Amino acid sequence: MNAAEAVNDALGALHARFADVRDGEQADYIPQLTRADPDDFGLALVSMDGHCYSAGEADTPFTVQSVSKPFVYALALSSVGLDEVDRWVGAEPSGEAFNAISLEAGTGRPANAMVNAGAIVTTALVPDTPESPAFDRILACLSRFAGRLLDVDEEVYASEAATGDRNRALAYLIRSTGTDYLDPVAAVDTYFRQCAVRVTAVDLAVMAATLAYGGVNPLTGETVVSAEVAAQVLSVMATCGMYNGSGEWLLRVGLPAKSGVSGGLIAAGPARFGLAAYSPPLDPAGTSVRGRAALGALSERYGLHLMRNPALPGSTVTLATTADVLPSAPAGRRERALRERVGIVAAQGALDFTAAERVLYALDESGAERTGSVVLDLREVTGVDSVALELLHAGLARLVADGRRAAVVDPGDRLGPSDLVRERTGRDLPRYGSREEAVERCAQALAGPG
């Protein structure tokens, strides 16, 4: 990948910016978590097209902990329906810490499925039969969200089971209110196991992207949950996923999110991307310090706030092919062979971060060979924001630096001066008024003199 490496560069810049942050403390109430390397720091982004980008220790395994909650909530919703889940677990922000005794007066119903009390009830709502035990269903569900088979860190599970008396107390307190379906021992043991499932930051980005994509895993194409369930989960994540800091997070970062005490953090941009971070040191609310800072900076820098209007999947790139298949291609064998080495990508509409990533990926995939040419047609583009402009210039500069000839059809001068291309490659970015002229010049350049 060449042009799309601009997205990796963006993640790499954030990683470098926050890698030396030394604030926060690792969770110590689960002793095994203290063995994690406090310097580990990984970032990952997965687009709706299944493109994966990462920086730092994005492939380092760690236990999912509370980041499992949205996905088990999705499983419960899929299994018994919203009305039944809502009967036992609310959907209101508690305004309290993750392990608070947050139960509705008179009913004992936990405030929401993102706090521990609600998560234990949610886990208990997953059907449990001898043929298909609840935890087997949970592990299979988490694996489908991740797009690969996950497993359990047995040492972390044992450590959590040995020290999890507060969660057991919550379960017994809920049972005492008349929640007769809940077996405190079984529910808490299953909950401990789901929290000890091993993932990486890349896994979490895929899982978040699956929710963002309406329940469809963008890597495997599998429908893991329905679009309705995915929307319900994202709604609760937006209002409750960051505990007593959920309002501040939504105001400033603007993305449904969920944190975990092992240092994992996910955020989802509906119809846009899944994001994840991993870094063990936590703030007082139990959220990764580096992860929170990096995802917040990413959202601010690239305009990812939920209330902004995203480019819809599939609406940006209208053509990605080679010039030999165009109706205007000449009939001669030599001319067509040259045009086969000229890739063409056409875009439309207003380009933001998400749209620019799609264009860059299409540029990378265009053309029959990496030594050929590529034409970017921007005639139908109505606007390019500053973020997309930066990414497009960086991506085009990479293409040229890696040996490909790039040309732009840009009669409206949407890209502006190509100073970055010139700075990195010593060459200008050719501009043309028509696609045919750009293709012809690129083919001539490939033919060489004579």
Structural commentary:
The structure is a single chain. With 450 residues, the chain is an alpha/beta fold. It folds into two domains: 5-302, 3-Layer(aba) Sandwich (Beta-lactamase); 317-447, Transcription Regulator spoIIAA, CATH 3.30.750.24. The protein contains 17 helices and twelve strands. A five-stranded antiparallel sheet has the order 2-1-7-6-5. A five-stranded mixed sheet has the order 8-9-10-11-12. A two-stranded antiparallel ribbon has the order 3-4. The model has no long low-confidence stretch (mean pLDDT 91). Pfam families: Glutaminase (PF04960), STAS (PF01740).
Q: In brief, what are we looking at here?
A:
This protein is α/β, with parallel strands linked by helices.
Q: Main traits of this protein?
A:
single chain; about 450 residues; alpha/beta; Beta-lactamase; Transcription Regulator spoIIAA; 2 domains; five-stranded antiparallel sheet; five-stranded mixed sheet; about 45% helix
